[in-house]
Amino acid sequence: MNSARQAMIEGWKSPRKNEPTREPTRDVTAPRFDSSTRISKLNRGAPPKPANAAAVSRYLTQDEQSEQFVADEDKFVLKQAKKKADIRVREHRAKPIDYLAFALRFIDADRDIFDDNEADVDIDIPAPQAVLESLDIAQLKELDEDIRSYHTLEANSTNKEYWTALVALVADRRQKLQPSGPEGRALATVASDVDNILSPKSLEQLEALEKQIRAKLASDGPIDTDYWEELLKSLLVYKAKAKLKRVCGTIKAARVELLRTRNPQKAKELEESEGLGGTVPASFAPGLVKAAPRPTAPGPSTQNSSAPPPGTARFASTGNEDFSHATKALYDREVARGVGEDEEIFAAEEAVTSGTAPLWADKYRPRKPRYFNRVQMGYEWNKYNQTHYDHDNPPPKVVQGYRFNIFYPDLIDKTKAPTFKIVREHGRKRGESFAPAGKEDTCLIRFIAGPPYEDIAFRIVDREWDYSAKKERGFKSSFDKGILQLHFMFKKIYYRK
């Protein structure tokens, strides 16, 4: 090889032209040659890629960011709802919805492993269909709302299928307990024939039969439309039963696998049993399940004693209530948050008296906003209670604060936030008391918004609010994403000697 080329490759100076070849000297300022380093020229044909190209490709539009925010919020709310259901089951104070949610935990791929408890697999779980069959009309109505909340928030396909099947079965159970009109009576007369046709079929056979029935109904041929439509309705119920049975089979297999090492005898018994191995608690029998209590402030109230249970009144009522899809979504998310240990549902709504209709009534249809409010309950350990009660025999709970969540997603003028004001009747001023000894004064809190929403009012205890920002005792008043939130606690009264 040419000595000059060899010297250049090895990082030495090349000999000058017309100069005899000599022993090259090392250029101490030149970079040291490294055989593992590969140097390539910059391709000037294409512009260099920006350093933040990955960030630009990951940029989300405002709508995408909003969707992502709602999705993350839904995940958090669903996670909290599952945690509360687990706690109530472990403490033997579960409601029907808690057992349905707890059963799904053994195959839920989205569960946090830190929420698991080794003893959970030993808890007896009733079969979902047995839970439904043990409830009456009022209990099924409440359960339907709870199931739809989970169904709205769930994103996992298997879990979604589980809740979808339960929605269909609850609707079928309610229809059977309270058939109405000639359709209900006609269905009852052919129920045995429908059972003989559909009960032996598998899920795949039911899906094939469904396609045939839909094709027959879509054809122009002379058929008994009423019969085939009723058969299709029943088929969808049996299809839901088959899907639920398949999911429950997966749950059972997962529990058996967990029990093999922990309790082989129980694993064998569960494997040989029908359903999930548990029985329906006696407290679920009709008439024994207590509805959520409705706390009311002491003093006069215009609430009707025959009003529907808390949480269902907004669905059962008819009239000018807001039932838009946006409001329903907000309501479902708030309901899914559940009620804390020291909270109860608060629905002490009062009639709002207004002399004249609003000026915008002829342009927009007036509607009442929907809400999901909670009242904070607790013990007052004053001097009297400390003397007469203790922690084993606590005093009666009293109202300690409120958490109002009122939904205004369809405000015409979104720049003007809803407001509230306190109304004291009979000329009573702030700080004055007309209540007898041992009683507390009450007042109305009235929420006011622009079109198309009417005013709404609630009766609350009239005490001084605590505006501090100490965690849960903090004051909050905000309007964001269509939700007016007003959370406050009352100041604690300390007695000095």
UniProtKB/TrEMBL annotation:
This is Splicing factor Cactin. Residues 16-26 have a biased composition (Basic and acidic residues). GO terms for cellular component: cytoplasm; spliceosomal complex. Residues 61-247 form the Splicing factor cactin central domain. Coiled coil: none annotated. Belongs to the CACTIN family. Residues 360-497 form the Splicing factor Cactin C-terminal domain. It comes from the Eukaryota. It comes from Schizothecium vesticola. InterPro entries: Cactin_C (IPR019134), Cactin_central (IPR018816). The lineage of its organism: Eukaryota, Fungi, Dikarya, Ascomycota, Pezizomycotina. GO terms for biological process: mRNA cis splicing, via spliceosome. Residues 1-54, 265-319 are annotated as: Disordered.
